[in-house]
Amino acid sequence: MSDAYIEFLKAKVAVAANVGLPCELADVNPVLKPHQAAGVVWAVRGGRRALFEAFGLGKSVQQLEIIRIILEKLGGGRGLIVIPLGVRQEFARDAIEVLGWSAPPRFVRTSVECQADGIYLTNYESVREGKIDTRDFAVVSLDEAAILRGLGGSKTFRKCMALLAGDYRETGIQTEGIRFRFVATAVPSPNDYIELLAYSEFLGIMDIGAAKTRWFKRNIEKADALTLRESKAHEFWTWVATWALFVTRPSDIDPTFSDEGYELPPIDVRWHELPTNHSDAGAEKDGQLRMFRNSSIGVQDQAKEKRDSLPSRVAKLIELRADDPGAHRIIWHDLEAERAALESAIPELRTVYGSQELDERESIVAEFAHGAISEIAAKPSMLGSGTNLQRFCAWAIYLGIGFKFHEFVQSLHRLQRFLQTRTVRVDLIYTEAERDVRGALERKWKQHNEMVERMTKIIREYGLAHAAAASQLARSLGVERVEAAGDNYKLVHNDCVLELRDMESNSADLIVTSIPFEAMYEYSDSYHDFGHTDDPTHFWAQMDHLTPQLLRVLRPGRVCAVHVKDRITPGGINGLGFQTISRVSDRCADHFERHGFAVLTRKTIVTDVVRENNQTYRLGWSEQCKDGSRMGAGLPEYLMVFRKPPSDPTNGYADLPVTKDKIEFTRPRWQFDAHGYMRSSGNRLLMPEDLEGLDQAAIFQLFKRHSLEQIYDFRHDVKIAEHVDRSGWLPSKFMLLQPQSWHPDVWADVVRMRTLNTTQANRSKEQHICPLPIDIVERCIEQYSMPGETVLDPFAGLGTVPYCAVRLGRFGIGIELAKWCFLDAASYCAEAAQKLGTPTLFDALEQLEQAA
């Protein structure tokens, strides 16, 4: 392995860079507690860090001190802390009462108010609306930064990325953004990894797309559904620990730090289920009446259940209040209709809502926090973050429940915080039809506790030593080579660059492979994985180490056939607000040409547009009805056919030509194969009534024959599909009536289900996320090689290429990095070789005849 390749792999190790300033404990205000001071030093040195600390550990004090130290070391400048509603009095109090400042940081709404150096506070609304010129600030901290979790569709996220992090996708102008950036929140969402990845991108640690590829398994049936690979979980959380500090108590950072005063108070959770009226449970889409109302069926059903049950929920709340009418209490609700019902039932209740003047809202919250008001009502989405309400209040009533765990747990911890001296009472009102909602809420609660425990365990293991975590991450480099060989095949578990280095030059007669689709999927746990790259540029940089080896081992004049597909770029990533195409196939062609291959042809493989839409949500019927200008088209796959130039350029023949026997490959066969399309038989058009009484399989075959044999009539075929839809046979999961191709380089007849994944499923084994159809491989081998020759695949996956090579009388070589794929591939090739060498009944009869 060349030194350059070693260094390339080492550079893949995911560790957040330190871009901060030198800082020691002596630089920190001595009034800070040990765990707070340690966190400040760690954050200043890092320069771009996240503080995920339990409620009451002192994030506001730390943010103030981090910014003060950085500005002091810079010799002046301005710092900005962006805060949610109702939090500014917390920062003001901590600045004066804890840090001993003579004046609190100033709260501003516009840049006009920022006339001098110092630390300023502002709300997220001011940033989102562009009222704050962020270029005036050297350092920024986002308090309760969970507001960033609305990735892509969130205006706040896009504005924060554009104005604070210098994201060109929003402004069109590439800038560096504010150099020193921090985020602080107590509860990163346990079941939505996108939130953590959004923090990473905002801090400039790693692009969201790259992070998805490194650690997550994509759901190929559903867009953006992420599952953390269990084998990568420790690596992922160790990487997070290089830029995020998870702390539940001071001893998490250092066992010598005292936990005195940092034990959360007990919580008394009381669930109150109300009966549901099932008499109007509604019906399914097919008209089937429901026996029971179930709000988990869909958003509309949930909303209807909320509206219908409102009177009984308010009545239950009034009943609960009677336990202690004068108690300090907060009522959490979600809907404006609920607020109106509460104000009507409890005239003395003070409410906080969005259309109020900001100062009035802040005043009500401050008075409640200091005990001047005994009872308020608010939405968790508005008041659930940042505010400290535990001094006088230890009782919360939830008028209803929902699936938004983050808002729920944030609102809960306005009361259950360190320094709370009483048991916190929590009453949750829900209906019988919302049992699934309660179950989901409790499940996410458990997940959250497990996530925090996992992170704090890593912090306890490595402390705040950046180098220790980095060394742990580097351990996934290196591959132990394993070989499995048999009659007509060889499978190797290894890095394909390393394996090809030792392969003899000009020894492969054909290369057929499906390369990783850039940095879209990761196929193994190793940093050697080509999918384990940050972006397209990074992926093709690793291919730069492989492709010259492919050219070297391929026989002159022979073919390298590469299966590839273009990618979808989400609107939130490209900054355009709608999905666009990332042209992987074009970059593939440019790359192979750059390394000495010649482009021979590009074969188009038609895919199912309905299945694609289920995976990408790009071509939705409803969305196209709203705005047809967003309509793209289904993305085909491509077989890019490259050729290594022959040694003798005078006639263009390969050094060893792929010859065909004219007895078997006849002139008529050649004429039909070479022709661009097949003429119609002249039979009449298929009529809608011809499909009456047929099932989906029969309809598919009949329409396929019609599409191939008849003169194409777009409107006529649409009418057929509409007739099938009215009959109830048109599926939503795949395209039943697919246009067929007449052109030899447009393959519409590739059977998508004919892959080794089908066998994997039958054997209850893990399936490959991008299975290579057997039809494609067989056609390449038959067209571009001869019996007995060697067919190579550097990305073997489940072994489709060597498996097909064995079955077609060639010698197959496959290289695969993922251990589980390698083992399954070896078994498939062994089965193919065994079947090839096992005589059939007819072989036995023939041998008996010869013997006689």
Description of the structure:
The strands form 5 sheets. The chain has a 9-stranded mixed β-sheet, with helices on both faces. A 7-stranded parallel β-sheet has the order 3-4-2-5-6-1-9. Strands 10-15-14-11-13-12 form a 6-stranded parallel β-sheet, with helices on both faces. Helix 11 (299-321) packs parallel to helix 12 (336-345). The protein folds into 3 domains: 36-205, 3-Layer(aba) Sandwich (Rossmann fold); 267-451, P-loop containing nucleotide triphosphate hydrolases (Rossmann fold); 477-676 and 743-837, Vaccinia Virus protein VP39 (Rossmann fold), CATH 3.40.50. It contains 31 helices and 26 strands. The protein is α/β, with parallel strands linked by helices and 852 residues long.
Bin the strand percentage. Answer: 15-25%
Overall pLDDT confidence: 78
Structural class: alpha/beta
- Named at the architecture level, the CATH assignment of the largest domain is 3-Layer(aba) Sandwich
Largest sheet: 9 strands, mixed
Strand order of the largest sheet: 16-17-26-25-18-19-23-22-24
Total number of strands: 26
Cα-atom radius of gyration:
32 Å
**Considering the protein shown, what is the CATH homologous superfamily of the largest domain?**
Vaccinia Virus protein VP39
* Overall CATH class of the largest domain: Alpha Beta
The separation of the N and C termini measures 60 Å
> Which overall shape is indicated by the principal axes computed on the Cα atoms?
elongated
In total, the number of domains comes to 3
CATH topology grouping of the largest domain? Rossmann fold
Pick out the low-confidence regions: 168-175, 672-691, 747-752, 839-845
H/I helix tally: 31
